[in-house]
């Protein structure tokens, strides 16, 4: 009697499940489109680019980091600092120690105080951070129409879209469409939240001359500097993925041993027969 | 093995080795063990991170970057700890929903469940406080939004907030005390977990059939130790995918921007594991009401042993409940989705409907269903 009643409940339950699935599908079709989610600071979503390092088992392209550093030093570094990157970080990544020492010695660093209590200048060392263009935030704002060029050490991790966003932003400058008034001192860039950015287009074909002879087109430079900045944000990237491969490989092997052990230990109980008399 | 009969060591024996366990508990019962592993991982990595971290507004963000860049395997420690929090919540959510599916909260295990809800509350506070420590933009603004909720308390709310902050905004004093509390609370969670376990072992685990567990029990070692370790290996592999291949997938990019009280982020979003509760909070267009609803959403779970009105435990024998259970899961997923969306139509309305359903489910549907099932059981 009771079980018949239970069975009669099955149909309404299935009907209810179906209607809730239908409701779920409706809700899903109403799901936010990306632009809707950022409605109050509208920006175009950057295209997804297949970076040489984006695959699970890929390392950074060292030559691209090297070229990217050239772009940073010759173009970006006139406004943007990289406070968390020291010369020593570049060693073994894209440059040899001698090359980096030479680069470091080219700059003057204020040090001190010395025994007489005076500050003095000395050539840079491996342990010095990359030189910043401005002494402080106020100077940076004053030189840039009130806008503050962000430090680039973490920029890839600190932006939605990461490298894709940087590449799209650097190559995305264009004339504003009709009907959009770009404010004085700003530039139109659809990838920047709000569409108006204080940074002028910085990369033009041939803006740097690559030492390895690569053609310095805008998109090439944008790609290289984005790779360099991705490395700066995640210097542990290559080691991390390699460790991940080792770690997951080791635990996968352990898993099969453990699976055998578990089944071995349980075999007696799994094959027992209960008799009720 | 005579050693294991000695005082203190006999506790290990009685609870981990010879402990009688129902033979039929399946892999959903691994998650309690996994939660304890998560707690141990968080405490160990946390202790080592604290050796390199500086709880000062000018230095906290820099010290995190120092850990990431200059400390040997510091990035690994930090990524284990930050993703570990997410893993802990995944494990605990599965653990809770296993309890809901098999009605593990029914007598005689009602106090195990209530202590579990307390542990969950402590975890929420600990995780929230921990997210403030890196002192990124989301840390600062998340802390500002959430601590401000206390100001909804009538009359003394503002004074309490000032007292919590140790000043007139989230600042150095707040960061310092949050660091201290973030170190303290995990040990309170450990104590609560041991009580959770001690009370559980009074009557033993439930089982997927929801019948008397004493019918057929076997020793914890080797059977369930091996079974738990097998689950642990799967968990470690899942965990590793996040740590090594997308360590920031569960975080927010804004937290890699140093905290700046002068700049408010466009969207202030809590960590993913808080989103359902955040959605309930924002669904109520009244500050105090929202806070009360959010806290009730957690506390209502503690009432379940007394809401449950039938003798049957397992969903295997409760077809109607089984269906309703999945509506509850959908409701929580919808709330989680709404929690990450801006406060606009249609999200507000969907969130409000889901919030109402959440409470309606626990306070009305479940008691009614219990009455119906009881009636049917006694019906001849």
From TrEMBL, chain A:
Pfam families: Cytochrom_C1
Domain Cytochrome c: 63-233
Keyword match Repeat: no
Binding site for heme c: 76, 79-80, 199
Species the sequence originates in: Gracilariopsis chorda
Cofactors: heme c
UniProt cofactor note: Binds 1 heme c group covalently per subunit.
Transmembrane stretches, start-end: 243-261
Record protein name field: Cytochrome c domain-containing protein
Superkingdom field: Eukaryota
GO molecular function, one term: heme binding
Cross-referenced InterPro entries: Cyt_c-like_dom, Cyt_c-like_dom_sf, Cyt_c1, Cyt_c1_TM_anchor_C
Family per similarity comment: Belongs to the cytochrome c family.
Alphabetical keyword list: Electron transport, Heme, Iron, Membrane, Metal-binding, Mitochondrion, Mitochondrion inner membrane, Respiratory chain, Signal, Transmembrane, Transmembrane helix, Transport
UniProt GO cellular component terms: mitochondrial inner membrane
One GO term of the biological process aspect: mitochondrial electron transport, ubiquinol to cytochrome c
Cleavable signal peptide: 1-17
Cell location: Mitochondrion inner membrane
TrEMBL record, chain B:
GO biological process, one term: mitochondrial electron transport, ubiquinol to cytochrome c
InterPro entries xref list: Cyt_b/b6_C, Cyt_b/b6_C_sf, Cyt_b/b6_N, Cytb/b6-like_sf, Cytochrome_b, Cytochrome_b_C_euk/bac, Cytochrome_b_N_euk/bac, Di-haem_cyt_TM
GO molecular function, one term: oxidoreductase activity
Cytochrome b/b6 N-terminal region profile domain residues: 1-209
Transmembrane segments: 27-54, 75-96, 111-133, 145-166, 178-200, 221-245, 288-308, 320-340, 346-369
Subcellular location: Mitochondrion inner membrane
Co-factor binding comment: Binds 2 heme groups non-covalently.
An annotated GO cellular component: respiratory chain complex III
Pfam families: Cytochrom_B_C, Cytochrome_B
Positions that bind a ubiquinone: 201
PROSITE patterns: CYTB_CTER, CYTB_NTER
Residues annotated to bind heme b b566: 95, 196
Cofactor: heme; heme b
Keywords linked to the UniProt accession: Electron transport, Heme, Iron, Membrane, Metal-binding, Mitochondrion, Mitochondrion inner membrane, Respiratory chain, Transmembrane, Transmembrane helix, Transport
Binding site for heme b b562: 81, 182
Task performed by this protein: Component of the ubiquinol-cytochrome c reductase complex (complex III or cytochrome b-c1 complex) that is part of the mitochondrial respiratory chain. The b-c1 complex mediates electron transfer from ubiquinol to cytochrome c. Contributes to the generation of a proton gradient across the mitochondrial membrane that is then used for ATP synthesis.
Family from the record: Belongs to the cytochrome b family.
Name of the protein in question: Cytochrome b
């Amino acid at each position: 009697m009771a079980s018949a009643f239970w069975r009669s409940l099955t149909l309404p339950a299935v009907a209810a499940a179906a209607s809730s699935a239908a409701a779920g599908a409706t809700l899903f079709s109403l799901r936010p489109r990306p632009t809707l989610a950022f409605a109050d600071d509208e920006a175009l979503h950057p295209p997804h680019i297949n970076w040489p390092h984006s695959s699970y088992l890929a390392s950074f392209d060292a030559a691209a980091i090297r070229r990217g550093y050239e772009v940073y030093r010759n173009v970006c570094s006139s406004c943007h600092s990289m406070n968390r990157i020291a010369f020593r970080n570049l060693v073994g990544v894209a440059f040899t120690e001698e090359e980096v020492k030479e680069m470091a010695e080219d700059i003057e660093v204020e040090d001190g105080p010395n025994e007489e209590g005076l500050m003095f200048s000395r050539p840079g060392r491996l342990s010095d951070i990359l030189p910043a263009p401005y002494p402080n935030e106020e100077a940076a704002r004053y030189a840039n129409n009130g806008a503050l060029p962000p430090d680039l050490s973490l920029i890839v991790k600190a932006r939605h879209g990461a490298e894709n966003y940087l590449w799209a932003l650097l190559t995305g400058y264009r004339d504003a469409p009709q009907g959009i008034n770009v404010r004085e001192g700003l530039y139109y860039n659809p990838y920047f939240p709000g569409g108006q950015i204080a940074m002028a287009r910085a990369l033009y074909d041939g803006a740097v001359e690559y030492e390895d002879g690569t053609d310095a087109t805008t998109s090439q430079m944008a790609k290289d500097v984005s790779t360099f900045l991705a490395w700066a944000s995640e210097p542990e990237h290559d080691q991390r993925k390699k460790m991940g491969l080792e770690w997951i490989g080791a635990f996968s092997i352990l898993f099969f041993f453990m699976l055998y052990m578990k089944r071995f230990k349980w075999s007696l109980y799994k094959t027992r027969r209960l008799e009720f008399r | 093995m005579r050693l294991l009969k000695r005082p203190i060591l006999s506790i290990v024996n009685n609870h981990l080795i010879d402990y009688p366990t129902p033979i039929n508990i399946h892999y959903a019962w691994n998650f309690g063990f996994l939660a304890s592993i998560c707690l141990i991982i968080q405490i160990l990595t946390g202790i080592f991170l604290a050796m390199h971290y500086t709880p000062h507004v000018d230095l906290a963000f820099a010290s995190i970057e120092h850990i990431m860049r200059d400390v040997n395997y510091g990035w690994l420690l930090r990524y284990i700890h930050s993703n570990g929090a997410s893993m802990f919540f995944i494990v605990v959510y599965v653990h809770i929903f296993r309890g809901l599916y098999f009605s593990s909260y029914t007598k005689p295990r009602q106090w195990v469940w209530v202590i579990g809800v307390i542990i969950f509350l402590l975890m929420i506070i600990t995780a929230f406080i921990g997210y403030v420590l890196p002192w990124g933009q989301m840390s600062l603004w998340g802390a500002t939004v959430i601590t401000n909720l206390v100001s909804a308390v009538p009359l003394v709310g503002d004074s309490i907030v000032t007292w919590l902050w140790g000043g007139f905004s989230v600042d150095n004093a707040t960061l310092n005390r949050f660091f201290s509390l973030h170190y303290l609370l995990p040990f309170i969670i450990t104590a609560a977990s041991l009580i959770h376990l001690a009370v559980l072992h009074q009557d033993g685990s439930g089982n997927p059939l929801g019948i008397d567990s004493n019918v057929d029990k076997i020793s914890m070692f080797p059977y369930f130790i091996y079974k738990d370790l097998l689950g642990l290996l799967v968990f470690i592999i899942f965990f590793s995918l996040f740590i090594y291949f997308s360590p920031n997938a569960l975080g927010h990019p804004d937290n890699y921007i140093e905290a700046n009280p002068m700049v408010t982020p466009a969207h202030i979003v809590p960590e993913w594991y808080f989103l359902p509760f955040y959605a309930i909070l924002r669904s109520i267009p009244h500050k105090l009401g929202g806070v009360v609803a959010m806290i009730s959403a957690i506390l209502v779970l503690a009432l379940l042993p007394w809401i449950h009105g039938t003798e049957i435990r397992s969903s295997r024998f409760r077809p109607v409940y089984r269906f309703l259970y999945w509506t509850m899961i959908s409701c929580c997923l919808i709330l989680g989705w709404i929690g990450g969306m801006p406060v606009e139509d249609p999200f507000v309305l969907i969130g409000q409907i889901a919030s109402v359903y959440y409470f309606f489910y626990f306070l009305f549907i479940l008691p009614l269903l219990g009455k119906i099932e009881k009636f049917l059981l006694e019906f001849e």
